Amino acid sequence: MQTGSKTGRGDIVSSQPPPSKLSPDLLKALHGIRPVHRFQKGVPLFHEGSAPTGVYLLESGEVRLLLATGASQKQLLEVATPGTMLGLSESMSGEKYRATAEAGDQTTAIFIPREEFLAFLREHGDFCVQVVRLLSEDLHALYDKFRSITAHPGRPRQRPLDEQLN
């Protein structure tokens, strides 16, 4: 890995791979594709509503995932920690980013451009199963969040009959 040189996205730094849901083989392969970059606190990795440019494998620090709620307000959706791959579903589907990702203190991540990541997966089909597993885990985490929200609503309200679930 390179150290100390600058890029448009941040300083390139060396680092050890973080704990991750990815296999050691996949982590090693991803580290071989791109160097690790340091991001200053508050710097956006990507913006909600923009076309996907690639995936970020968070090495250290935190990334805040924010949702626009209107009138220039943002709501914290989640705080991503080391080992998290950000922008995966959008890069796979080609759909726009559904949240804004902002770097926290001491944040480092590998950025892999979308087309390069897709080409990597085409060449390494054995890693595709891990990507599918990650996407499935993300979906199940959303189910759990939804259950939590609906089990403890902030303000109970009576839903009209046509909105009620059977």
Description:
The protein is an alpha+beta fold and 166 residues long. It has a single domain, classed as Jelly Rolls (Sandwich). Helices cover 32% and strands 28% of the residues. It has 4 helices and 9 strands. It has helices spanning 24-33, 88-93, 114-123, 125-151; strands spanning 11-13, 36-39, 44-46, 54-60, 63-70, 73-80, 85-86, 100-103, 107-113. It has a 5-stranded antiparallel sheet. Strands 3-8-5-6 form a 4-stranded antiparallel sheet, with no helix packed on it. Strand 5 (63-70) and strand 6 form a beta hairpin.
How many E strands?
9
Secondary-structure class: alpha+beta
CATH architecture: Sandwich
Could you state the order of secondary-structure elements as H and E?
Answer: EHEEEEEEHEEHH
Largest sheet: 5 strands, antiparallel
Distance between the termini: 55 Å
**How large, in whole angstroms, is the Cα Rg?**
18 Å
Within CATH, the superfamily carries the name Jelly Rolls
| Total tally of structural domains | 1
Average of the residue pLDDT scores: 77
Low-confidence stretches: 1-19
Determine the fraction of residues in helical runs and give it as a percent range: 25-40%
Gross morphology is globular
- Could you tell me the strand content as a percent range? 25-35%
